[in-house]
Specification:
Elements (H helix, E strand, L loop, with lengths): L2 E7 L5 E7 L3 H9 L4 E7 L28 H12 L14 H11 L4 H16 L4 H11 L3 H15 L4 H5 L8 H13 L2 H48 L9 H23 L5 H12 L5 H22 L4 H11 L3 H7 L12 H6 L6 H13 L2 H59 L1
Antiparallel strand pairs: 1-2, 1-3
Helix pairs in contact: 1-2, 4-5, 4-9, 5-6, 8-9, 9-12, 9-17, 11-14, 12-13, 12-17, 13-14, 16-17
Length: 442
């Protein structure tokens, strides 16, 4: 039986080398891989050094998740067994995907609804907590997913796990599906051995995000209805006046031209929201403009951004992510690049030994009431709860302001529509009178 020389790294990170016998190089490599050895080099041994040494003994994992740095013992053994029989394909790539895939096509057609993500997080965490192997859990969730994109992503993550990689290695390749906050929470769970809890925390965080988005949709529903009604009234009045026959206040060509412009603006707005705002510089300028809008609109948007920051910070801190990273990731999750730019520099103050409350107070982005709450939470060791209360405070305050702004905007839109209709009717009446006088004079 041929003998092969090998060099590699064992589970403890130590470099080892030796000899192993095998029918083929593939069989020898499979035998070594089953022991948890990462083989760096293997070739057939020379006749002089062919004194066969047994491969390292496959030790049982320290716990069910094997600290999640690799798949479970049972899954890894099954993967190596399939490899020996040639039943596996090449593992998925680990490098980042192209800019077009992640920042253009991804935001346009590659997003996954938050409700689907919340279901995936919760079910995956529950299955892991029940002791179901990781690969089996991912395979089951991929099959029952009704979202094609999520099915594809979960299937690829399963391939990463089968190849001995971390779950986060597959998640980080899809930023349009899994934001940095999600990847960081999972990575913290992998490092600390509590992946199941990390995914259940992600489910809770996603549920809060869904609730906040639904609140924003509810508060903006009335202005949207008024805006659509305004367009319908403007178009209807214009076409009605033009259909009188004796007068033509606005030519049909002009009406079609305006309609084409409005349709173009809608398409541009969609592309700008999905693709243009993926550029950090464009998003920073846009968010700065929004935050400074008059009539209290800017304050409402700033409040909702701070609510998202508080929720994200609470879950990250509870999930074991280091404080400095938590602040940065929570700032990313607030959804406003201008607010993020205010908060990010403050994270450097933590390196000087400053507390969390003092660090956030230095941003001038939080109200004194909120800072007192955070300071109390930090001193009493109840920071997670206080951060969630901070989020609730901003949500309630922003909801109250948003209702007021919605009423003001609705009234302004209705007044503008009324003015337009009056102008059109006056122009129509004036032209009709002029036409009759001209006819009477003839």
């Amino acid at each position: 039986m041929p003998t092969f020389e090998y060099q590699g790294v064992n589970r403890s990170g130590e470099r080892v080398s030796g000899l192993v016998a095998g029918i083929s190089m593939e069989q020898a490599l499979s035998s070594l891989s089953q022991t948890g050895l990462v083989v760096e080099r293997i070739n057939q041994a020379s006749a002089e050094s062919a004194v066969v040494q047994p491969p390292p003994v496959l030790a049982p994992p320290p716990n069910l998740y094997d600290t999640i740095q690799s798949p479970t013992y049972r899954e890894q053994a099954a993967y190596q067994e399939r490899s020996a029989y040639g039943q596996t394909v090449e593992p998925p790539p680990t490098g980042p995907r192209s800019y077009v895939a992640t920042s253009v096509a991804g935001p346009l057609v590659g997003t996954v609804p938050l409700a689907n993500l919340a279901f995936f997080y919760r079910q995956f965490g529950t299955m892991l907590e029940a002791g179901v192997p990781i690969v089996q859990s991912l395979d089951t969730l991929a099959k029952q997913s009704h979202n094609l994109k999520l099915h594809q992503v979960v299937t690829e993550i399963r391939g990463h796990v089968e190849a001995g990689r971390e779950i986060s290695a597959g998640m980080q390749r899809y930023p349009e599906v899994f934001p940095p906050l999600s990847v960081s929470l999972v990575r913290a769970g992998e490092e600390g051995g509590f992946v199941a809890q990390s995914f259940k925390q992600l489910a809770d965080y996603t549920d809060r995000e869904i609730s906040l988005r639904n609140l924003i949709r509810k508060l903006t529903l009335h202005p949207k209805i008024v805006l659509v009604t305004a367009f319908v009234l403007v178009g209807g009045v214009t076409l009605f006046v033009n259909s009188l026959g004796k007068t033509n206040i606005l030519p049909v060509g002009f009406v079609m031209f305006v309609s084409a412009i409005l349709a173009g603006l809608l398409v541009f707005g969609f592309l700008f929201a999905r693709v243009g705002l993926a550029n950090p510089r464009v998003k920073y300028n846009w968010d700065m403009l929004l935050v400074k809008l008059p009539l209290g609109i800017g304050g409402v948007l700033h409040g909702f951004a701070m609510a998202k920051f508080g929720t994200a910070m609470a879950f990250l801190h509870k999930g074991g992510v280091p404080v400095q990273n938590s602040i940065k990731l929570a700032a990313d999750a607030c959804g406003n690049e201008y607010v993020r730019a205010q908060v990010i520099p403050a994270s450097r103050h933590l390196e000087t030994g400053a507390g969390i409350a003092d660090t956030l107070r230095g941003t001038n982005a939080f109200s004194p009431i909120v800072m007192d709450m955070v300071d109390t939470g930090e001193r009493t060791g109840n920071l997670d709860s206080m951060l969630l209360r901070m989020s609730t405070f901003y949500e309630d305050d922003s909801e109250t302001r948003a209702r007021q702004v919605a009423q003001i905007v609705s009234v302004i839109l209705l007044l503008l529509v009324a003015v337009y209709v009056c102008v059109i009717l006056v122009m129509a009446y004036t032209k009709l009178i002029g036409t009759e006088m001209s006819g009477g004079g003839d």
